[in-house]
Amino acid sequence: MIAMIIDVFLDVCLDTVKLLPFLFVTYLAMEWFEHKMEVKSQSAVLKAGRFGPLIGGVVGIAPQCGFSAAASSLFSGGLITAGTLIAVFLSTSDEMLPIFISEQVPFFTMLKILLTKACIGIAMGFVFDLVYHTMLKRPMRYKNIINKHTVNDMCEEEKCHCDDGIFKSAIIHTLQITLFIFIFGLLIGFVVEGVGEETLTRFFTSIPVVGELIAGLVGLIPNCAASVVITEMYIEGVIGAGPLISGLLVGAGVGLLVLFRLNRKNMKQNLAIIFYLYLVGVAAGVIIDLTGFRF
Length: 295
Known about the structure:
Order of helices and strands: HHHHHHHHHHHHHH
Number of helices: 14
Largest sheet: none
Mean pLDDT: 78
Radius of gyration: 19 Å
Helix content: over 70%
Strand content: under 5%
C-alpha cells in the first residue's frame, strides 16, 4: 500500500515537472495575445449587434476564461445579446489548450476540437437569440459604452491578475494550473490503482449518456479546475470524445460566477442560460458518441 502511494506520488511529480516549462511558455504567449486583442475583441462583439453570436463564437476560442468573464459583464450591462453570451460560453476552451499544448497533442486534433466548439457555439447562440429575443419578445438592450468600473471590479474580485503584467500573470497562471494538474494527477492515479483503469473507463463508456451527463455537471463548476479535470481525463483515456465535448462546451470558467454576481436581479434568466448550456453540451456529446466521431 505504501509502495503504491509512493509510486503514484513520484510518477505524478515527474509528469507535472515535465509540463512546467511548456505551460509557462504557452501562458506567456497567450497573455501577450490576450492583452493585445482584449479591447479589439470586446469592440468587435459590441458592434456585432444581431450577429453577435458569430463574433462571440470566434473570439471565444481564445483560451482561458477571461473573455467569458468579460462577456458576462457586457451581457449584465445590456451590451450584448443572450445568444452572444451563449456563443462565448460554448466556444471558450478555458485551460484545455495550454494543457493540450504542454502534452504535445497533435495540432489537428486541437484544431478540430476548437472548431467543433466554435461552430456549436455560433449555431446555438443564434438559436437562443431566435427563441429568447424574437419568439419570446425579450428586448435586446444596447448601450454606447462599456462599464469599465464593473469589468475592473470583477477582475479584482475574481483575482484574475489582469493588471499584473504579462510575465507575472503567466507565472501565476502556470503555478495555479500546475497545482490543479498535480492534485488531480494524484487523485486519478490513486483511483486507477484502486479500481483499475479498465473498470474506470468502462464506467464512463458502458452506459450510454452517463459520461456526457457527468462531464456536463463537472463543466458547470465555475472554476478552471473543471476544464483541467476533463482535459486530463481525456488525455489519460478515461473518457472519450463525447464526454470531452460535453464538459468543455458547458465549462465557461468564472464566466458563470460573474454572470450570477452581476446579473443577480435576473436569476431566472441566469438559470435558463445554465440549463441551455447543459442541454446543448450533453446533446452534442451524445451525438458525437453515436456517430463515432473522433478527434
